[in-house]
């Protein structure tokens, strides 16, 4: 068995945050101890709230930011130093799709000029071949060649995202990282773009990382899903399985929060407390102040990501077989008193 | 003719331009033409004196004669000829001064915004220094020290406002570089040259062009001030500023000596500003060009 195309080992990424002239700069841990792998023909979904570090993870996986700890290997080799010649060459093999397609396109250049740019940068083919490749790509994403002569602002949101996608595919990459690619689009267009992404992936055998906060979309496109909370993966598993029986309380809350037509709202798990703030990370399990099942241990000890078998991993002290059998309501009652000031203050 | 054609009239166009912009361009081209062909156009030389014809009013006023269309000054020199030659000097100094300031300021600002670090700190220190010291003051000091010549004068006039281009270019490049389209191009492995010249500069150029058109009048005014103080263009040479300065003393009884070059300055700077404003909109493909 060959190694997966992209492997991230215990990557972390922190930022220095200046707080005025006289205060010491504080470090914000955006991502810590994330281990992931993606193979060809596979889509890994990364879900999480804003501030969970999913976009940073995506940028580190692509080699656009260096990890502060850990390693990322692509095709069996560590990612080269950012800005090096090798790094530049590697850009042809890994590409990114952005959330706001209008922002990701230069408004002063026509679509075809921008789509040709990766080919121009890496001097792939003759000018005539590049032109041919541009119209071929436009066709592949379902746009007419005429679109190439227009400016980004003259296109609709869906068309723009198709252009961004076509541009990313121009150098025939092996890996595509999509950072909230459909969040800025209308719901009716979302499905089209998601379907296009899955079709292209199957056709080209791409490895894909799909970052989103929208569980329905992630479920539709992903083979495996990693759930992130405050910079850590809290649960990872096969897409359908993860949705069918979420183990981590956070995943359970997310799954129950995803709107499903026809389902009543009162059966949902309501998350209390503030959304995660990476600058103020709670002790122990970062999720414990909002967790319905938290026990005393949760506020003290950080749970590690444990393999539960069947490709499922979860980072929760209660993620044993026993906790799974228990319905969440029953366990909420036996909640042992959490450390004072950690849970109550937020409710 | 259908109803829609009647109600939505096409705006008037002269060579595809709005009339006011066409007018501005006409004036600017005329100014440049006059500046270049001053020797052929001027009825007499700008130093030719005729003390018997002092303070002659322009031809359209009572007492005016057609041999001095715009009148004469206190030495009987032909105002029209002097304005024509003064235009050459002033336009030369202001244009090259503005261009030099814009190029130097933009380059410094772009480098600071692009490479950050120690260069950024140094560049910003330099612009702060420039802001703190009035350019007129520096110009006076340097002119007194090095004497007067046109190349030095252009360099000094370019001091007026270069730090504004630097600040503007730095700030704009910082904000544009965090935009996805720049990040995307960088993620394709584009080098600094491509990022800066193909994406960054065209996207911030509009603001810099507007800054240049705003700065052009200020450059002319600096030239005016220095010439007025006797540190700029030296008599018998002439410039619009020098003419203003000389005419100031006779404003009450021979207003045309100062006012006519003043009108030329006013029209030129106005035309430049309006044209710059239109250019900014035109450079932006997201603005509807019909409005």
UniProtKB/TrEMBL annotation, chain A:
SMART domains, per database record: AAA
Coiled coil stretches, renumbered: none
Subcellular location as annotated: Cell inner membrane
Organism: Neorhizobium alkalisoli
Protein family (similarity comment): Belongs to the ABC transporter superfamily.
Signal peptide as annotated in the record: none
UniProt domain ABC transporter: residue ranges: 6-255
GO cellular component terms, A-Z: plasma membrane
Keyword Transport tagged: yes
InterPro entries, A to Z: AAA+_ATPase (IPR003593), ABC_transp_ATP-bind (IPR050319), ABC_transporter-like_ATP-bd (IPR003439), ABC_transporter-like_CS (IPR017871), Oligopep_ABC_C (IPR013563), P-loop_NTPase (IPR027417)
GO molecular function: ATP binding; ATP hydrolysis activity
PANTHER family per record: D,D-DIPEPTIDE TRANSPORT ATP-BINDING PROTEIN DDPF-RELATED, TRANSPORT ATP-BINDING PROTEIN
Annotated GO biological process: peptide transport; transmembrane transport
Its membrane topology: Peripheral membrane protein
Protein name per Swiss-Prot or TrEMBL: Peptide/nickel transport system ATP-binding protein
Keyword list, A-Z: ATP-binding, Nucleotide-binding, Transport
TrEMBL record, chain B:
Regions that span the bilayer: 20-42, 91-112, 132-157, 250-275
Compartments reported by the entry: Cell membrane
Occurrences of domain ABC transmembrane type-1 (ranges): 87-276
One of the protein's GO biological processes: transmembrane transport
Entry keywords, A to Z: Cell membrane, Membrane, Transmembrane, Transmembrane helix, Transport
SUPFAM superfamilies linked to this entry: MetI-like
Broad class of the protein's primary localization: membrane
GO cellular component terms listed in the entry, alphabetical order: plasma membrane
Gene3D superfamilies: MetI-like
Membrane topology value: Multi-pass membrane protein
Family: Belongs to the binding-protein-dependent transport system permease family.
Name recorded for this polypeptide: Peptide/nickel transport system permease protein
The organism of origin for this protein: Neorhizobium alkalisoli
């Amino acid at each position: 068995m060959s190694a997966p195309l992209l492997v991230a080992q215990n990557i972390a990424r922190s930022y220095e945050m200046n707080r005025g002239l006289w205060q010491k700069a504080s470090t914000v841990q955006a991502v810590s101890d994330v281990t992931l792998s993606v193979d060809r023909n596979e889509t890994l979904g990364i879900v999480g709230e804003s501030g969970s570090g999913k976009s940073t993870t995506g940028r580190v996986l692509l080699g656009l930011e260096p990890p502060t700890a850990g390693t990322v290997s692509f095709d069996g080799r560590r990612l080269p130093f950012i800005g090096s010649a090798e790094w530049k060459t590697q850009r042809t093999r890994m590409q990114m799709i952005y959330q706001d397609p209008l922002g990701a396109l230069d408004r002063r250049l026509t679509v075809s000029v921008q789509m040709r740019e990766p080919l121009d940068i890496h001097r792939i083919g003759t000018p005539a071949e590049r032109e041919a490749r541009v119209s071929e790509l436009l066709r592949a994403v379902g746009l007419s060649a005429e679109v190439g002569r227009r400016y980004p602002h003259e296109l609709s949101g869906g068309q723009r995202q198709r252009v961004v996608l076509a541009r990313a595919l121009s150098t025939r990459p092996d890996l595509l990282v999509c950072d909230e690619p459909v969040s800025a689009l209308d719901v009716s267009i979302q499905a089209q773009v998601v379907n296009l992404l899955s079709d292209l992936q199957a056709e080209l055998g791409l490895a894909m990382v799909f970052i989103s906060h929208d569980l329905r979309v992630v479920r539709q496109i992903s083979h495996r899903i990693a759930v992130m909370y405050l910079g850590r993966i809290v649960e990872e598993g096969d897409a359908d399985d993860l949705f069918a029986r979420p183990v981590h309380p956070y995943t359970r809350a997310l799954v129950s929060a995803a709107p499903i037509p026809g389902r009543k709202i009162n059966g949902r798990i309501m998350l209390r407390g503030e959304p995660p703030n990476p600058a103020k990370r709670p002790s122990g399990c970062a999720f414990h102040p909002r967790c319905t099942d938290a026990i005393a241990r949760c506020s003290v000890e950080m749970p590690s990501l444990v393999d539960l078998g069947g490709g499922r991993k979860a980072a929760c002290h209660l993620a044993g077989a026993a906790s799974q059998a228990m319905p969440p309501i029953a366990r909420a009652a036996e909640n042992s008193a959490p450390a004072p000031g950690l849970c109550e203050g937020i409710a | 003719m259908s109803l829609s054609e009647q109600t939505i009239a096409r705006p008037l166009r002269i060579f595809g331009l709005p009339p006011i912009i066409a007018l501005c361009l006409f004036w600017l081209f005329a100014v440049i033409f006059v500046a270049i062909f001053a020797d052929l156009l001027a009825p007499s030389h700008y130093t030719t004196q005729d003390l018997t014809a002092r303070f002659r009013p322009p031809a359209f006023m009572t007492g005016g004669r057609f041999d001095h269309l715009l009148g004469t000054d206190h030495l009987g020199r032909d105002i029209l000829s002097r304005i024509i030659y003064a235009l050459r000097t002033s336009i030369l100094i202001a244009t090259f001064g503005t261009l030099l300031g814009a190029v130097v300021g933009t380059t410094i600002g772009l480098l600071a915004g692009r490479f950050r670090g120690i260069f950024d700190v140094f560049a910003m220190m330099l612009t702060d220094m420039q802001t703190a010291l009035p350019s007129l003051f520096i110009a006076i000091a340097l002119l007194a020290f090095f004497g007067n010549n046109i190349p030095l004068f252009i360099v000094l006039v370019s001091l007026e406002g270069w730090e504004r281009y630097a600040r503007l270019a730095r700030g704009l490049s910082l904000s544009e570089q965090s935009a996805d389209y720049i990040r995307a191009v960088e993620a394709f492995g584009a080098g600094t040259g491509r990022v800066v010249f193909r994406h960054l500069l065209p996207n911030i150029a509009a603001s810099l062009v507007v800054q240049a058109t705003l700065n052009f009048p200020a450059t002319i005014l600096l030239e005016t001030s220095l010439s007025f103080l006797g540190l700029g263009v030296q008599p018998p040479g002439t410039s619009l500023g020098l003419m203003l300065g000389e005419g100031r003393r006779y404003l009450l009884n021979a207003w045309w000596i100062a006012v006519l070059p003043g009108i030329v300055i006013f029209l030129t700077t106005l035309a430049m500003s309006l044209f710059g404003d239109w250019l900014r909109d035109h450079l932006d493909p997201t603005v509807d060009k019909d409005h």
